[in-house]
Amino acid sequence: MDISFVIPTFNEAGSLNALYEEICTQMVGVTNDFEIVLVDDGSSDTSFEIMHELARNDPKVRVIKLRRNFGKSIALNEGFRVAEGDIIFTMDADLQDDPKEIPRFLAKLEEGYDLISGWKHKRKDPVLSKNLPSRLFNFMINLFSGLKLHDHNCGFKAYRKSVAKGLSLYGDLHRYIPAVAHAAGWKVSEIPIEHHERSFGKSKYGIERFFHGLFDFITVVFITRYLKRPMHFFGWFGLLFSLAGFGICSYLSVLWLMGESIGERPLLMLGVLLLLMGCQIISAGLIAEMVTHHTQNHSGDDLIELTLNQ
């Protein structure tokens, strides 16, 4: 299989037939060896019936139905698991992403990259509900990941098979796939793409997803920067708390030696509490280091890009 399209879908009945036709039209002249993997993420409309009809009429279409709405990350994860293409595309089912960009993604991959993300440089989404939060998250992930992209969360992406198969997505981690791939050593880039206004269905983005994205951002920072060295994360906090507690207790000790009573002072309780918290945080870091060391795959097979015969 040359190319797979993994398309998570939640209540997008109005656009599925048009999306299928657009993909098939654009693949003429590219390759006939492709598949379309449609993942029904617990839709409550007629999306699954339409998918089923497409699959019945075209063997290139494969359908996965999830038991309920698990979210885009899980839907993508299941699609990646069954996709067979050497190149795997992801795109949203609402037709805001234009399949005519497919050849440009393929051309960029040929330059030696492993993951290409779309950049909706003229985004046709509501400013307050989507554009501004997206810019905020892109700024933060650029700052902490070291990967400078304009649009980490664009749903239109092209992956080499090894990248997609190596991802483990849950929560809202699909927003940060480029950063996760970059941290794993894959070569990531982006291309500007045309973005259309939504013509079918309605946006699934709500205020609760803003907070979900914030929490997952913290997770991404940890797993991309500190997963292999957790003590570097816990150690700074533990050291800060310990030094603050030691400083307070040292100050109170001097007062006690000078004859002052410190037993009833709230500052004493604070100093002791900070010392205990610092020791606990450092202990948590040491335990995390032990777990990391125990579970580390020393063979490094997942890190090897190329092995040549001697």
Question: What does this protein look like?
Answer:
The chain is of the alpha/beta class and 310 residues long. It contains ten helices and seven strands. The protein has helices at 16-27, 47-57, 72-82, 102-109, 127-145, 161-166, 177-183, 207-225, 231-257, 266-295, and strands at residues 3-9, 34-40, 61-65, 87-90, 115-119, 157-160, 188-192. A seven-stranded mixed sheet has the order 3-2-1-4-6-5-7, sandwiched between helices. Helix 1 (16-27) links the parallel strand 1 and strand 2. The radius of gyration is 25 Å and the shape is elongated. The two termini are 32 Å apart. The mean pLDDT is 85.
Outline of the structure:
With 310 residues, this protein is an alpha/beta fold.
Strand order of the main beta sheet, please? Answer: 3-2-1-4-6-5-7
Q: Residue ranges: pLDDT <50 for 5 or more in a row?
A: none
Strands, count: 7
> Mean of the pLDDT scores?
85
Q: Estimate the global geometry from the Cα principal axes.
A: elongated
Backbone structural class: alpha/beta
Topology:
Layout: E1 3-9, H1 16-27, E2 34-40, H2 47-57, E3 61-65, H3 72-82, E4 87-90, H4 102-109, E5 115-119, H5 127-145, E6 157-160, H6 161-166, H7 177-183, E7 188-192, H8 207-225, H9 231-257, H10 266-295
Parallel strand pairs: 1-2, 1-4, 2-3, 5-7
Antiparallel strand pairs: 4-6, 5-6
Helix pairs in contact: 5-8, 9-10
